[in-house]
Amino acid sequence: MESIYKLSSKDERIFNNNHLVVIPSSAKLYMSEKIPYVFRQNTDFLYLSGCLEPGSALVLSGAGGGHHTSTIFVRQKDVHSEMWDGPRTGTEGALELFGVDQSLPMQELGLFLKSFSKSHSKFMLWYDFTHPAEPEVHKTMQGFLANTINKVWESPKHLLHRLRLYKSPSEVALMRTSCKVASEAIAVTMQDSHPGVTEHQLFARVDYECRMRGAETLAYPPVVAGGTRANIIHYISNNQVVQAGEMVLMDAGCEYHGYNSDITRTWPISGKFSSNQLELYEAVLSVQSDLIKRCSNFPSLDSLFYEMCDLLGHSLQQVGLLPRNLNKDQLSKVL
What we know:
The protein is of the alpha/beta class. It has three domains: about 1-165, Creatine Amidinohydrolase, Chain A, domain 1, CATH 3.40.350; about 165-270, Creatinase/methionine aminopeptidase superfamily (Creatine Amidinohydrolase); about 275-335, no CATH class. The protein has twelve helices and twelve strands. Helix 6 (about 135-145) links the parallel strand 5 (about 125) and strand 6. Helix 11 (about 300-320) packs across helix 12. It is elongated and about 75 Å long.
């Protein structure tokens, strides 16, 4: 809460105000009437609370330099529901597990907000009205805003994402593990690939290998593209056969305790490059190696992108894929 206050304190409009931050969980979504999708938590809520359950909300309240309070609202324990969907944390478990000052039943969120409004004539409300994550929380927030004289609110996303930008040593360790898991999974998938394998089978293999190494799921729908399909940027159909002599591109990563990796690799499905494939592969690899070295100087992403265009354009000219008479500006447009 103190970090949120510091990040927002340059805004004179809210500098002296009390703050009320409401972060909902994700909702449980269904692919058909009774068949749910695999649940994925709202990452802002997960970052601040550590709670993996739907139907929840975290409320932070306080003022700069003063006392701050964290309250988590969760579903109550229910024998019938837990028999179908598994155990719930409940208010007692939430207080013990999530490091908050208090935990309350989800049904009491509206009363809590009403009480806060009565005791604070002015306050800054931080809630994302434009991208509601949980319908019941959103309905409560709409009613709260309609019935309070306070009309000053803003989405907390930009502040939360600034907080999340700087990683702790523990977070860095999780990110490294996520990359290690995905890297090993892709390497095994490469080793076991062969002409005639389907893109879907390669998808299944990398998914399996990631999960067997501790990942909860893949980070995103992977691109597994054989032959010329690799030129389709967001190809996720992954339903064709990879023929002998073709290259296969895989863009995949995994989610490991909330932290995601993103890796792209291309390899010959037959196990050996043709001379043309090898020449192009080494040209791209050389560009990548140069760019990694330049990262030690902490360049901006934009400057790194333009350097990539320059290096890659020159390399493609060297192998004869682009005309040698194109200048730097022309190359950047082509790429």
